[in-house]
Specification:
With about 325 residues, the chain is an alpha/beta fold. Helices cover about 35% and strands about 25% of the residues. It folds into two domains: about 5-225, P-loop containing nucleotide triphosphate hydrolases (Rossmann fold, 3-Layer(aba) Sandwich), CATH 3.40.50; about 230-295, Alpha-Beta Plaits (2-Layer Sandwich). The protein is elongated. The protein binds adenosine-5'-triphosphate (ATP). This is ABC transporter ATP-binding protein.
Length: about 325
């Protein structure tokens, strides 16, 4: 089977409240698939259903070839999970956390020791293996959780907000590990995030979720196409000569109140050389060029009329406060 996850019409209610309202999607083997949405959209609830921690209300979910309701143990053997909140034992060392997890999954002896060494080296924690987890930074803990989740070589790895509250440098490190897991082990990765850059940098495909529903799905490029074209802004010496710039690749143009000319093109980077050539031929002097490509934030805004972000990695304090409040 080429699909690692198949979800059909999944509904999850908490009492009368429908947190997930009939979502359907498929994730191919070896793919990184991101659930992108604001807080409270239903991302964690979906992960908990797919990892058999919560029972679905209706619908169907197959993970690694097994039904989450009918064969939860088969699913559990084949998946790894990194939760939003740490599930490490803070009083134990990194090595001990790994060892206990490995034993739970039936690993032992040299095989287990070798795996622990390889994985702790993979996340660059080998030199800290004998230190208690309570002395680790947030980023080190997240790296240890990733290493731990890989011990039993899962087919599908679930990462719930893998970089929430981490500084930009640590986030970039974690993105590298996630890419390496896909490339070196052809692992299927399902991640949730409310960071648009994270979805864009990592995911082969993205489902945007809002109020328990998937409102759009596709590659980052496909999603951005929903918003429209790239826009190039030009400051010309003589803006009235704008009409001279209506070349074949220009899909629309207008003069902005500040005098700049806004040109719509399919791909700004590709259009720029042609644009300079055209201006040169017509003797038009371009004083300044900037361009804007639609972002996933523009896509969310376009679809919902709201901004996705309530916090950014540049403002980790907001994330920290939210994590504390969840406890
Ligand atoms: N145990 C629960 N009982 C009642 N309502 C819940 C419960 N857990 C979550 N909810 C509600 O379900 C909705 C979806 O929550 P969920 O945690 O899945 O969202 P999310 O997209 O993962 O956001 P976050 O990243 O903040 O967790 C929210 O409105 C939340 O308040």
């Amino acid at each position: 089977m080429s699909e690692a996850i198949v979800v059909e019409n999944l509904v999850k209610k908490y009492g009368d409240f429908e947190a997930v309202k009939g979502v359907s999607f498929k994730v191919k083997r070896g793919e990184i698939f991101a659930f992108l949405g604001p807080n409270g959209a239903g991302k964690t609830t979906t992960v908990h259903v797919l990892t058999t921690l919560l029972k679905l209300t209706s619908g169907k979910a197959i993970v690694a070839g097994h039904d989450v309701v009918e064969e939860p143990m088969e699913v559990r053997k084949r998946i790894g999970i990194v939760f939003q909140d740490s599930s490490l034992d803070r009083d134990l060392t990194a090595w001990e956390n790994m060892y206990i997890h490995g034993r739970i999954y039936g690993l032992k002896g040299n095989e287990l020791r070798e795996k622990i060494e390889r994985l702790l080296k993979f996340v660059e924690l080998w030199e800290f293996k004998d230190k208690p987890v309570k002395t680790f930074s947030g980023g080190m803990q997240r790296r240890l959780e990733i290493a731990r989740s890989l011990l039993h070589e899962p087919e599908v790895l679930f990462l719930d907000e893998p970089t929430i509250g981490l500084d930009p440098q640590t986030r970039a490190h974690i993105w590298d590990y996630i890419r390496a897991m896909k490339e070196e082990h052809n692992m299927t990765i399902f991640l949730t995030t409310h960071y648009m850059d994270e979805a864009e940098m990592l995911a082969d495909r993205i489902a945007i979720i809002d109020h328990g529903k998937i409102i759009a799905e596709g590659t980052a490029e496909e999603l951005k196409k929903l918003v429209g074209n790239d826009v190039i802004y030009l400051k010309l010496e003589a803006p009235e000569e704008l009409k001279c710039l209506e070349g074949g690749f220009i899909r629309g143009c207008k003069v902005l109140p500040d005098g700049r000319v806004a040109l719509e093109v399919e791909n700004a980077a590709e259009a720029l050389p042609g644009l300079f050539e055209l201006a040169n031929e017509r003797g038009i002097r371009i004083l300044e060029v900037t361009y804007h490509r639609p972002t996933l934030n523009d896509v969310f805004l376009h679809l919902t009329g709201r901004e996705i972000r309530d916090e950014s990695p540049e403002n980790p304090m907001a994330a920290f406060v939210r994590m504390r409040m969840r406890r």
